[in-house]
UniProtKB/TrEMBL annotation:
Species the sequence originates in: Sphingomonas horti
Single Gene Ontology BP annotation: lipid biosynthetic process
Fatty acid desaturase domain segment(s): 74-340
Lineage: Bacteria, Pseudomonadati, Pseudomonadota, Alphaproteobacteria, Sphingomonadales
Name of the protein this chain belongs to: Fatty acid desaturase
GO CC annotation, single: membrane
GO molecular function: oxidoreductase activity, acting on paired donors, with oxidation of a pair of donors resulting in the reduction of molecular oxygen to two molecules of water
Length: 363
C-alpha cells in the first residue's frame, strides 16, 4: 500500500528546467535481477493466509481492548498494537495488485470482507491504480498516480503531505456514505467520484478512467458493500447504538494507520524526478530499500515494503521472497553496482535527506 486517499492535496510545484542527465540502464543489475530470482515469483498461500489472518485477529482484538481499556495507559498500549497489526493487514492491498489470484484462491474476497470493506478501503481503490505506477513510461511523470516531486517542492508541503492523511478516515466515510449514493442521481457527480475520489493516490492531477468488464462488476459489488457499511455506521453512531467514544477511538486508530502509511510513502522514493520518463535503473535509484539489520522497518514498512526499490525491479516477486532476492543480489553484484545505492539504514536518515533536498532545491 503506497498511498493514502487525498481529496485536494498540495499542487505540484512548477516544472523544473529540463535537461537533467538521463541515467542509463545498468545491464548487469537487470540481468542479475532476472536470472537469480526466476523461481521466486511463486506465492505461498500458507504464508499469505497465516500472516493476514493473524494480523486481522490481533488488530481487531487490540482495537476492542483499546475501546474497553480502563486507563489511558492501557488504551495507548492496546492502541499501538491495533495500529501496527491493522496497518500490516491493510498493507496486503499492495500484494493484491500484483498477485495472480488463482494462486491464492479466495484471498482477495477474504481481504475485502475482513478489512477492505470494514475499513472503507476496498481493493478497487488500489487495483487499476497502482499498476500504473509500475508502467515504465509513466513512473515519475504526470500520469503516475503515486508520484509527486516532493523533494523539489516547497518545504511546507512535506508536513502537509503527512498531516492530510489524518483526515483520510473521515474522507472515506464521506466518499462512501454520501458521495456514492448521491452519484447515483447525477451522472456528472458520478463521473467526478470515479475520476477523482476512487483511487488511493497522491497525485491530485491524476484522473481515473471508469473500469470495464469484470473489473467494473467487482467495483460495483465492493462499492455497494462499502457504501451500505458506511451508511449503517453513520446511522448507528447518530442513534447512539454505537457509543460516540468507541467510534472516535476507531477513527483515531484508523487515522494513525493512515498517517503511518503516509510517512512510509514519503520515504518510499526520493521524489527527485521532474516529470520526464525514466529508465528502469533510474526508477530503482529513485526508490528505497531499508534492508536488515534494521528491525524497525519491519513495523513501519511491513509486508515486503522495506524492499520497495527491489520491488520496482521485480514487481512479480511476492513479499515473502523479497528478502531472499535481496540476499542473492547483494552476494553476487559488484560493490560499485547501483543496487547498493538504493539501500538506506532507516526512517530518520531518509526523512532528513528528503527534507534537506526540499529546503535546498524546493520551489
Amino acid at each position: 500500500m503506497d498511498t493514502t486517499l487525498t481529496f485536494d492535496a498540495p499542487a505540484p510545484a512548477a516544472e523544473a528546467p529540463k535537461g537533467k542527465r538521463r541515467i542509463a540502464d545498468d545491464t548487469a543489475l537487470l540481468r542479475a535481477a532476472a536470472e537469480l530470482t526466476r523461481e521466486l515469483s511463486a506465492a505461498n498461500p500458507r504464508i499469505y493466509w497465516a500472516d493476514f489472518l493473524a494480523s486481522v485477529v490481533i488488530g481487531y482484538a487490540a482495537l476492542a481492548a483499546t475501546i474497553m481499556a480502563g486507563s489511558v495507559g492501557w488504551a495507548l498500549a492496546f492502541g499501538l498494537v491495533a495500529v501496527l497489526a491493522l496497518y500490516r493487514a491493510e498493507s496486503f492491498i499492495h500484494e493484491l495488485t500484483h498477485l495472480k489470484h488463482s494462486t491464492v484462491s479466495g484471498f482477495r474476497a477474504a481481504w475485502n470482507a475482513l478489512l477492505g470493506v470494514p475499513m472503507l478501503v476496498p481493493s478497487f481503490m488500489y487495483e487499476g491504480v497502482h499498476n500504473l505506477h509500475h508502467a515504465k513510461t509513466r513512473y515519475g511523470t504526470a500520469e503516475d498516480p503515486e508520484y509527486l516531486p516532493l523533494a523539489l517542492m516547497k518545504p511546507w508541503t512535506l508536513p502537509a503531505f503527512i498531516l492530510v492523511a489524518a483526515l483520510a478516515p473521515v474522507a472515506l466515510i464521506i466518499r462512501f456514505a454520501v458521495l456514492a449514493p448521491l452519484s447515483l442521481l447525477s451522472p456528472k457527480l458520478r463521473e467526478t467520484v470515479v475520476a477523482r475520489y476512487s483511487g488511493l493516490q497522491i497525485n491530485p492531477a491524476f484522473r481515473r478512467r471508469a473500469p470495464e468488464g469484470e473489473a467494473a462488476r467487482l467495483w460495483t459489488r465492493l462499492e455497494v458493500a462499502a457504501s451500505l457499511w458506511a451508511v449503517t455506521l453513520v446511522v448507528l453512531v447518530a442513534t447512539g447504538a454505537i457509543p460516540l467514544r468507541a467510534f472516535l477511538i476507531v477513527l483515531a486508530v484508523a487515522s494513525v494507520v493512515a498517517v503511518l502509511n503516509q510517512v512510509r510513502t514519503l520515504v518510499a522514493h526520493l521524489w527527485e524526478n521532474e516529470g520526464e520518463p525514466m529508465t528502469v535503473t533510474a526508477q530503482y535509484l529513485d526508490s528505497v530499500n531499508v534492508p536488515p539489520p534494521g528491525l524497525l522497518p519491519a513495523l513501519w514498512a511491513p509486508v515486503g515494503l522495506r524492499y520497495h526499490a527491489l520491488h520496482h525491479l521485480l514487481p512479480s516477486v511476492p513479499y515473502h521472497n523479497l528478502g531472499t532476492a535481496h540476499r542473492r543480489l547483494a552476494a553476487v553484484l559488484d560493490p560499485g553496482s547501483p543496487y547498493f545505492k538504493a539501500n538506506y539504514k532507516g526512517l530518520t536518515g531518509l526523512m532528513w535527506k528528503i527534507g534537506l533536498s526540499s529546503i535546498t532545491r524546493g520551489r
